[in-house]
Fold:
Amino acid sequence: MLLDDCEKIFDQALSTESESAFCHAIDLLFKEYEILSLEFGRGSIFWRARPIENEIYSNISDLDYPPPQLAKQGRLNDFGTPCFYIAARKETALAEVGATDGQLVQLAGFRVINESPIRLAVIGEYSNVQKNGYMHFAGQDPDMEIAKILNAMPRQEALKKIYIDKFFASVLADPDASVNGYMFSRALAQSIYSRVGAEGIVFPSVKDRGGFNVAVQAEPSDRSFHNVSCFVVRMGKPRKFGLTEFEIVKSAERLDDDWNFIWMDGEDPNVVGVYNMSKEEFDMTSRNPYDRNSLLHMLHAHTKRR
Structure:
């Protein structure tokens, strides 16, 4: 298969009128493409954002995925099949919900539970490794595995793999995908799940250039993620070039036994609560509680990827 052949398949797939026809059209591409599948462990915080309409959400369940009876058809999920959508950065989560100037938004942070790593398919990173030597989402190329895959291939074969990866990323992050009910992105997600043992899919953000979102199946998200932070922000003035500005209004210090947020006293914008830490993580951040970098060191100290 040549690059021109790939383009013909791209065009054919995007001209189909059903999910099954789209999956059939792209079937040949998977013979030329290896899906990146990585296991992610304890590490950075992933974020979910929800605009506040009336009152601050009091329970973590208000910021989780919806129950099946309320689950709408989404970018990577069907009606009645909820999906846990999270973003790799706070700014990406805020951009995805279209937060506006002065609006209050509640941000909930989640981390992978140390004993329950999760396997994710990562789409749209081959070209980043080719150009920069690392994945933008993970911040690294674990053991240089992706670079080794590309370097071991003839140049045209590597370019073909990158080209297909770019196409898949564009389908998952198509800003106009809602026009046809996310037909192509949902179909592609099912094709990916049918070929690799992943429980979620990483894909480029639609609203935040350079950002990444993660769609995790509901049951695995319950097993692998837990809430570690939550705060309310007030959005600032929209800025050019995708800059996101906000101020922290309120921060939670922990969850009670019923999963309600217990909020910190005072409104110090420099203090952000992080809870559900292991003893080792708590000790690491407690050595210098006023040093913001101590939190960064803690978040990255236990990341496991392979």
About this structure: Residues 3-38+119-218 form one domain. Confidence is low (pLDDT under 50) at residues 301-306. The beta strands are 36-40, 46-51, 83-87, 104-112, 118-122, 200-204, 212-217, 225-235, 246-255, 261-263. The CA atoms of residues 270 and 292 lie 9 Å apart.
